[in-house]
Amino acid sequence: MLASSASAQFQPRIDDDTVFAAVRRSVEMPVAQGTAGERVTPVFVVGMHRSGTTLVERMLGGSPQVRTLGETRRLAAAITYAADRDGDGLRDPDIINAACAADPGIIARHFALLAQQQSAPADFVTEKSPDNFLAIGFIRAAMPEAKIVHVRRDPVDLCFANMREFFQAGVPYRCRMDTLAHFHRAYSALMEFWRQSFPGLCWMWTTSRWSTIPMESRSVSSIFAESNGCLR
User: Fold this and answer.
1) Which one of 6, 116, 150, 197 is most buried, counting C-beta atoms within 10 A?
2) CA angle 127-132-138, nearest 5°?
3) Are 79 and 138 a contacting pair, CB within 8 Å?
4) In 3D, which of 63, 46, 40, 54 has the Cα closest to residue 119?
5) Residues 122/40, Cβ–Cβ less than 8 Å
6) Which residues face 67 on adjacent strands?
């Protein structure tokens, strides 16, 4: 009985394969037209948990050009709002499918509204929810001016760090090695899919060795400019 209860406790809330398949449809969304120059440029820091997203966001926040908003659900809330559904926009295939058929401008405007409520004026504002790697198709459609920092870590180091952490229910793989390995393979395949679908969109920042993170005191503009000219 105890073993059965423990096994049930660590099952993902939804079928992750269905979610990973659903978000790929977002590549078909048209790009929103309009007012990119009228709003602050978002910087999405994405990657798996324990990859170093918090460290990278804090380093970005050392620049006066950047306001950091931390780990929030603003993007997921904007996607849910555009879908006109209740639930978690990045964990519910029905919401994802509805959002793929929605106007991407709705996502952009709702995200900007939520961000403005918590951010002082700045050139860039960060959103550091690791699960936003699922939403890169939505980001590209709704906010084509956005910058994406994909924080990667050596797979063995990353998975070991995840196994050491007792996550709450919001992390689908949590404490099982089989679901963690499956999730990492699906995550890696999805990031490769985004890379091929949107060449040059994602800035890959490898943190397999912490000492290699090249921030120092340079401006955010110069750092992005050195990375395939993503920021001008």
Assistant:
1) 150
2) 100
3) yes
4) 40
5) yes
6) 125
pTM here is 0.81
Distance CA 188, CA 107 (A): 25
Residue 10 has pLDDT above 80, yes or no: no
**Beta-sheet strand order (sheet of 202-206):** 66-68, 124-127, 41-46, 147-152, 202-206
Nearest residue to 75 (alpha-carbon basis) of 27, 123, 133: 133
Tokens 């555009």 sit on residue: 82
CB 139 within 8 A of CB 150: no
How far apart are alpha carbons 180 and 6 in whole angstroms? Answer: 16
Alpha-carbon distance 120 to 32, whole Å? Answer: 25
E strand intervals along the chain: 41-46, 66-68, 124-127, 147-152, 202-206
Q: How far apart are CA 26 and CA 22, in angstroms?
A: 8
Chain center to CA of 123: 20
Structure tokens at 187: 């995550």
The pair of structure tokens assigned to 121 is 């004026």
Contact 57, 65 (CB under 8 A): no
Which tens digits make up the pLDDT trace of 171-216?
766 667 888 888 899 999 999 999 899 887 766 666 544 434 444 4
- Give Cβ neighbours of residue 108 (< 8 Å, ≥ 6 apart): 32, 39, 78, 142, 143
**For residue 136, which amino acid is it?**
I
Please give the Cα distance from 107 to 77 (Å, whole number).
Answer: 9
Structure tokens at 93: 């295939």
To which residue do tokens 């910058």 refer? 147
